[in-house]
Amino acid sequence: MPGRKWLGLLLALASRQGNTDKCRASLPARCIRQYHLVGVLMVAGLFVGCAATGPQEIEEKSAENAESAGPAVDPAASAAFDAALQAMANGKDVQAEKILLTMTQDFPQFSGPHANLGIIYFRAGKRDKAETAFLRAVEIKPENAVSLDYLGVINRDKGQFKEAAGFYQRAIKADPKYAYAYRNYGILLELYMGKLKQALAQYEKYQKLSNGEDKQVAKWIVDLSRRSGVKK
User: Fold this and answer.
1) CA nearest to 180, candidates 42, 86, 28
2) d(CA 16, CA 205)
3) Residues 128, 158: contact at Cβ < 8 Å?
């Protein structure tokens, strides 16, 4: 039975030490604006109808508050998923990956395991594997804002700006309150597509959703207002 198998797996993995791969960007260093989700660990909920940030942030919804409209949750799936998220939060990505890979086989109806595998691969610089995982998550749940946002970054890095814009737009439509999609869409519009006024609008939406707490983006807004000719 799934529950018994998962109990054994979790007990075995609990005694092992995972790795501590850091999320890193592979972009030119014009400014920190090039970095996706600076200083924030994103984790996707089991249904991926909402997102939770890491220990340093409390702005987003928690994984426990994932939308109820979805497959009934097997207690074994819930326990396994919580263990994977805890491992990710502690930097034990190898441990989390093992749990999530097994979940994709035992509980294929959930998009969360695929989305979080994508995050693990993204942090490790394995962009091809990350893209495959995020695409699978979106296939299961098209309104997966976290995965759509990451797919935007991946396509941007490949120089596929039109595709990247499409993923950001889909992320925003899927969850209009998901602040990071506006931020990353703004980066694409400003630095890669030269659309300054449109980028400014995205940064302002991000600041509104994040209660104006991002001092760095506040500076971008002042700079971009000057360069775009938009008076504040």
Assistant:
1) 42
2) 43
3) no
Q: Which two tokens stand for residue 149?
A: 């946002």
Q: What is the 3-state secondary structure (H, E, C) of the chain?
A: CHHHHHHHHHHHHHCCCCCCCCCCCCCCCCCHHHCCCCCCCEEECCCCCCEEECCCCCCCCCHHHCCCCCCCCCHHHHHHHHHHHHHHHCCCHHHHHHHHHHHHHHCCCCCHHHHHHHHHHHHCCCHHHHHHHHHHHHHHCCCCHHHHHHHHHHHHHCCCHHHHHHHHHHHHHHCCCCHHHHHHHHHHHHHHCCCHHHHHHHHHHHHHHCCCCCHHHHHHHHHHHHHHCCCC
Tokens 């409209």 sit on residue: 69
> Tens-digit pLDDT profile for the chain (232 aa)?
445 444 444 434 443 333 323 322 333 323 334 333 322 344 555 554 333 332 222 222 223 333 334 556 778 888 889 899 999 999 999 999 999 999 999 999 899 999 999 999 999 999 999 999 999 999 999 999 999 999 999 999 999 999 999 999 999 999 999 999 999 999 999 999 999 999 999 999 999 999 988 999 999 999 999 998 876 6
Instruction: Return residue ranges of the chain for CATH 1.25.40.10.
Output: 39-141, 163-232
What is the fold of 39-141?
A: 1.25.40
Residue 36 token pair: 């996706």
Q: What is the CATH number of domain 163-232?
A: 1.25.40.10
First to last CA, the chain: 62
Place of tokens 């508050």: 65
